[in-house]
Design the sequence.
């Protein structure tokens, strides 16, 4: 479905090509449509390059829940804070989790109070820390969508192979298809077409999406992250909406196949099992997460440190859940830029590098 006249290898940000596609969107659209880009990385690219402002007024883009930091449930943040505060623990995490607010503080506060909280760039870095510090319990905060699941699985399996009984993971993995089902099944849903996350589909393929598209009569297009990727994804979605065609198309064929990475999928299914998962600001979505299989309980930090019963307290002012369901925009929140800003956030969408509120704040919306 990719237009062969476009050189997607070298022309991702070619302004002339982007404008050409936008003009084709103008010629194609005849009525209003609401599209959702499911991924926070796509949201940042759209806002950074002003693509939403260049589109014809008939096209409204709303922002989905595809930011792993943003949807990590508050109770899981509070569990991380409780574990990280223990003197025998070295708590490791990606950097963008450190400023995400829990019920009362964040991981930076724990670190400032003397907790051993370290930023790592891979779960294998955490594994190395565990090998170098056998007298300490090393915990890795394993968050993310399908994209980050394979390396997290690899770390757990390596820890088992090495007999590292001082390594564990606090798992908060979520899956895109159940989230889309929850959005489309909501009585308040406005979304009529989806731009699917290319990096998720590079791992999982897009074989899970055609049944969803057919059930809810909504076209979906696998889309990349550069301006040309995004406007082409919008064009292909609009073409299908205007023609009444319901299908899932691949606009990111340079990286994505229908089947995906079968080796990565097998590793995931051998290490994780599906479970119900709470999404911050949204609530529990059935079978929307992954948790460790029982044979890996030794490496389950939630069980090792007995923190399952922690009860969170969310700010009543934060409307991030409605933003991530496409029901509101960040500037619709009365706290945006006032009570809630990057220096004093109420929710994760204001501090995550992929959060919609952070994008609107950073780029002056």
Sequence:
């Amino acid at each position: 479905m990719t237009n062969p006249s476009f050189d997607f290898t070298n022309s991702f940000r070619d302004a002339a090509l982007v404008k050409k596609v936008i003009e084709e969107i103008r010629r194609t659209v005849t009525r209003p449509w609401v599209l959702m880009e499911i991924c926070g990385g796509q949201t940042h690219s759209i806002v950074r390059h002003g693509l939403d402002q260049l589109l014809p007024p008939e096209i409204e883009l709303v922002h989905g829940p595809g930011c792993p930091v943003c949807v990590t449930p508050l109770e899981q943040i509070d569990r991380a804070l409780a574990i990280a505060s223990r003197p025998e623990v070295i708590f490791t995490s990606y950097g963008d989790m450190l400023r995400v607010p829990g019920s009362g503080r964040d991981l930076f506060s724990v670190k400032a109070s003397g907790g051993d909280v370290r930023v790592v760039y891979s779960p294998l870095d955490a594994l190395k820390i565990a090998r170098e510090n056998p007298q300490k319990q090393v915990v890795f905060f394993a968050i993310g969508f399908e994209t980050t699941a394979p390396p997290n699985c690899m770390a757990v399996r390596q820890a088992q192979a090495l007999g590292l009984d001082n390594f564990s993971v606090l798992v908060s993995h979520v899956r895109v298809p159940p989230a889309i089902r929850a959005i489309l099944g909501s009585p308040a849903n406005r979304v009529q077409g989806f731009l699917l996350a290319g990096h998720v589909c590079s791992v999982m393929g897009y074989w899970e999406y055609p049944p969803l598209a057919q059930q809810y009569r909504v076209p979906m297009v696998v889309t990349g992250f550069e301006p040309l990727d995004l406007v082409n994804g919008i064009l292909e979605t609009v073409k299908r909406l205007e023609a009444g065609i319901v299908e899932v198309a691949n606009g990111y064929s340079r990286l994505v196949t229908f089947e995906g990475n079968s080796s990565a999928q097998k590793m995931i299914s051998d290490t994780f099992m599906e479970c119900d998962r709470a999404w911050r600001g949204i609530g529990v979505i059935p079978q929307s997460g992954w948790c460790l299989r029982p044979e890996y309980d030794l490496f389950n930090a939630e069980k090792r440190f007995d923190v399952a019963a922690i009860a969170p307290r969310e700010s009543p002012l934060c409307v991030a859940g409605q933003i991530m369901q496409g029901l509101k925009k960040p500037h619709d929140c009365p706290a945006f830029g006032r009570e809630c800003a990057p220096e004093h956030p109420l929710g994760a969408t204001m501090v995550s590098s992929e959060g919609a509120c952070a994008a609107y704040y950073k780029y002056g919306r």
User: Anything to note?
Assistant: The chain has two domains: 15-68+178-250, 70-175+260-304. The chain has a mean pLDDT of 92. Residues 190 and 234 are 16 Å apart (CA to CA).
